[in-house]
Design brief:
Keywords: Iron, Metal-binding, Oxidoreductase. Belongs to the iron/ascorbate-dependent oxidoreductase family. InterPro entries: IPNS-like_FE2OG_OXY, IPNS-like_sf, Iron_ascorbate_oxido_reductase, Oxoglu/Fe-dep_dioxygenase_dom. GO terms for molecular function: metal ion binding; oxidoreductase activity. The longest helix has 14 residues. The protein has a single domain, classed as Sandwich (Jelly Rolls). It has a five-stranded antiparallel β-sheet with strand order 3-4-11-6-9. The protein has a four-stranded antiparallel β-sheet with strand order 5-10-7-8, with no helix packed on it. It has 268 residues and is of the alpha+beta class. The protein is 25% helix and 24% strand. The N terminus is likely disordered. It is globular. It has eight helices and 13 strands.
């Protein structure tokens, strides 16, 4: 696991709007091997920027601060994280991310649910893209699967800022970067908020190991032939969304999870 220390100079980066000191900077972790969904999510990406009247009506509720926060992340930290991933993979990730294909998301894990006593806040899954940055409000709940012990979960501190790698990073790196499987557990009666930035390759990028990379694990013929691009892969992940809460009956009475389905698609 590689880690990097950064200071995010924006009040939304830390719980209660406080600014971190040089010794209290949030830790961003580039997590190796192994990656939920009963939360309320608000996508604040491109459509909001295109509607000035909506921006004005929401300005008093902090929309500008949220957009400024995500813009700061995009310009200040995304390039350096891509550079770090390039070093780990042994090939340049930057050309595959020239259009900054990304989504901003605010997650509200509201305690008022149909199953208020349930501990499941967001089911176990791996993100589809290259990497995800998660900022938390100080409330614990995020857990990472132990890479060496499938089914064993390690809690993440509620004030930690985390970078999780996804399936696209696995493919582009030839398996040198592993995906981070994660989930969110709730504390009954406690509300939890997080701000998340998702980064993926450009939609037309072919998803196979980048040139010059020798895969460390055999990929499927579908991947190696270049039959899948980011747009197609995103659609596959989207169709599996309803399975994120755990195992359930699928087409043909097959039982499995979203991650199981993706693993079948990309590995030989």
């Amino acid at each position: 696991m590689a880690t990097a220390q950064i200071t995010v100079s924006h009040p939304l980066a830390t719980p209660n709007g406080s600014q971190p000191s040089s010794t209290e900077a949030p830790t961003i972790s580039l997590l190796g091997p192994n990656a939920t969904a009963a939360s309320v999510r608000l996508d604040v990406s491109a459509p909001f920027s295109a509607i000035p009247s909506l921006q004005q009506s929401l300005a008093g509720h902090g929309l500008k601060d949220v957009l400024d926060f995500f813009n700061t992340l995009t310009t200040e930290y995304v390039p350096s994280i891509l550079s770090t991933l390039s070093i780990i993979a042994g090939a340049d990730f930057t050309p595959a991310h020239s259009t900054y294909n990304m989504n901003f998301r605010l997650c509200d894990y509201n305690p008022v649910t149909a199953a208020s006593g349930s501990l499941n806040g967001c089911g176990a899954h791996t993100d589809y893209g290259t990497f995800t940055i998660i900022f938390q409000d100080g409330t614990p709940g995020l857990e990472l699967e132990d890479a060496s012990a499938t089914g064993s979960w390690v809690p993440v501190a509620g004030d930690a800022t985390v970078v999780l790698t996804g399936w696209c990073a696995v493919i582009l790196s030839g398996g040198r970067i592993a995906a981070a499987r994660h989930r969110v557990r709730r504390t009954p009666g406690v509300r939890r908020l997080s701000a998340v930035l998702f980064i993926a390759p450009d939609l037309d990028v072919t998803l196979r190991p980048l040139g010059g990379i020798q895969p460390i694990r055999p990929f499927s013929e579908t991947v190696m032939r270049g039959d899948i691009d980011t747009g197609v892969f995103k659609e596959v992940m989207g169709k599996r969304w309803r399975y994120r809460e755990g195992n359930e009956e699928m087409e043909g009475h097959e039982i499995g999870t979203q991650d199981d389905e993706i693993a079948k698609l990309i590995w030989a």
